[in-house]
Amino acid sequence: MIISARNLNFAFGEGDLRKQILFDVSFDVAPGEVVLLTGPSGSGKTTLLTLIGGLRRTTEGEMTVLSRPMHHARKEDLVANRRDIGFIFQQHNLLEFLSAQKNVELMFQLHPEVPAGEARARSAEMLTKVGLGNRLDYHPSRLSGGQKQRVAIARALVTRPQLILADEPTAALDSHSGRDVVELLQSLARDRGCPILMVTHDNRVLDIADRVLSMEDGRLEESRGTEARGETETQ
Amino acid sequence: MLSSFVVAWRQLSYHRMKLAVASAGVLVAVMLMLVQLGIRQGAMDNSVAIARRVTADLVVVSPRTRTIFQSSQLPRRLLFRVGAHPEVDAIQEMYMGQARWRNPWELREHPIAVFGVDPRSPLINFRGLSELADELMLADRVVFDGLSRKSYGPVVAHLANHDFLETEMNLHRVRVIATINVGVSITGDGNVFMSPANFRRIFPQRPAGSVDLGLIRLKPGSDVEQVKRDLAPLLGAEATIITREELIDKEIAFVRESAPIDFIFGMGAAVGFFIGFVVVYQILYTEVTNHLPQFATLKAMGFSDNKLLQIVLSQGVILSVLGYVPGFVMALWVYEIATDAIQMPFSMTWQRALAVFSLTLVMCLLSAMIAIQKVRTVDPADVF
Questions:
Q1: Closest Cα to residue A223, out of A39, A34, A43?
Q2: Which of A5, B164, B267, B278 is the most buried (most CB within 10 A)?
Q3: Would you kindly state where each structural domain of chain B is located, as residue ranges?
């Protein structure tokens, strides 16, 4: 299992101000799976994503990501774990002073073992795969919203992560480019057998998923999937 | 791999105007520090320049004297006592005073420093004086310092076309026969040199038997400290004998305690440092703040705080160099102007250049380290 979560609980705040976000969440993601996580705002989707990404500490329950236990992990281990994960955010947050290629190449700072020449070549290759081969030297200000998000995808994939976490990557895009971005993401991940966990509101893209998990009030339930695989805990 | 340094440069150079402002801030800081520290050194050097010119091994001064520029006199007869010591090679009396020099072009008087010393082989380095010795032994012949300030009139230009220049000092007619280049200090605007006999003619009210300094040259290979100990009892309480080095130290100590040179110019340099610090901090801080979401994103992706610190520190280094180089050139230019304007030579020393560069680097790195604090506290989970 790429991700294996058992009986996760998570709360913000202490004492009277304590607000529990996740209740007894258990699920698995198998290698190569594309799993969508849907649900209304405030249902806890993003919080779950930050726990998986090691951006917040798992305090109650058990979770293993990429064979590393996340519960009670040290801060350095959490940071190290993030380097094996490709992140795609709602906002692309590209550095505006770097060209598309340099933004992608920057990720190799986390992988100093890759020689500079190879890093440059792989960045160009990845941008070509997302259809921006002719925009390598463009700064983000000269790219459209969809193109920027595609640069962000290239950035997430270029270091060959073992897992991709995406948080509403289509939120800032119109339906057409949103669809393009998601299909691109899916096909690139399929090629390499890289699992994707994507948080989305967007009903138009549900059909690309192997499985759809939906969240409501911090509880997880499996709603539907085109091709159910793996075990899912149902509340 | 794309190095932090390259990323730093791309970020700085993306907004040319900001880069120019930040570099200008560092430039001003560098220039202020170099100029202030340069003037401090120049003022210090100039105040002790006369003491440094002394070539005698031992110097006899009045115990009342704090600085040779305001010396108390001592009885000349005391100097005759020391000649008995077998190690003493030569003894000279030296006179110093301030006279009123009449600018012969505008006919007004200006105070000028006067030195009376045997011109034939003075135990003080007034280069060019001994070549003029024969004529200087004649009555009322004087030599003018060519590096004196302009208020005394165009003496050098006049002597280039004429054999001599006649004017008055203390209402006494003198003939300037030549100029030599010695240099003025912060305590005086100009110098005139002459024989002891002529000095007494200009200062007739001074008792003939009182001198300002006694200069003693020892035979080669003498133990200066030993001779000093031998001679001290001969002089008694009326005069003190010190070595050349002690005289210089005494002058430096006097300048330090009487004129707040260190404080004034040290303060100027500190202000420069502070200006540079604030400008660099302001620029780097806005850069960091404007890119907080991007930096938080990088942190979420696994960049450590130190990796991001490297980028901002590199920006500090880039700004130091970009500001230092033109600041250095401008400081050299200011040194030249200042040398011209106040006729007090300033020079760049590599120690000062290096010290100011280190200060600049510290200034920029410190601003960078404070500017990055915000990134340390940002929670990468907030970018979701």
A1: A39
A2: A5
A3: 2-47+260-383, 63-238
Q: How far is CA A220 from CA A24, A71, A234, in A?
A: 8, 19, 7
CB neighbour list of residue B83: distance below 8 Å, 6 or more residues apart:
B91
Strands (E), chain B: 58-61, 74-75, 88-103, 108-117, 141-145, 165-169, 172-180, 191-194, 210-211, 213-218, 240-243
| Cβ atoms within 10 Å, residue B297 | 22
Tens of pLDDT, residue by residue over B288-310, are 998 888 898 888 888 888 888 99
Q: Which of B300, B307, B379 sits opposite A87 (nearest CB)?
A: B300
User: How far apart are the C-alpha atoms of A7 and A59, rounded to whole Å?
Assistant: 11
Q: Sign of torsion, CA B298 B301 B306 B311?
A: negative
Reduced to 3 states (helix: H, G, I; strand: E, B; else coil), residue B166 is: strand
Question: Which whole number is the average pLDDT over A117-131?
Answer: 91
Nearest chain B residue to A109 by CA: give it.
Answer: B1
B63 CB near a chain A CB, below 8 Å?
A: no
> Residue B359: pLDDT above 90?
yes
Matching residue, tokens 């230019």: B333
Number of CB atoms found within 10 A of residue B102's CB: 21
pTM of the model: 0.77
What does the DSSP 8-state code read for residue B54?
Answer: B
**A/B interface, count of CB pairs below 8 Å:** 75
Nearest CA in chain A to B16: A97
ipTM over 0.90: no
Report which secondary-structure segment, H or E, holds A163: strand A163-167
* Nearest to A25, CA basis, from A45, A1, A53: A45
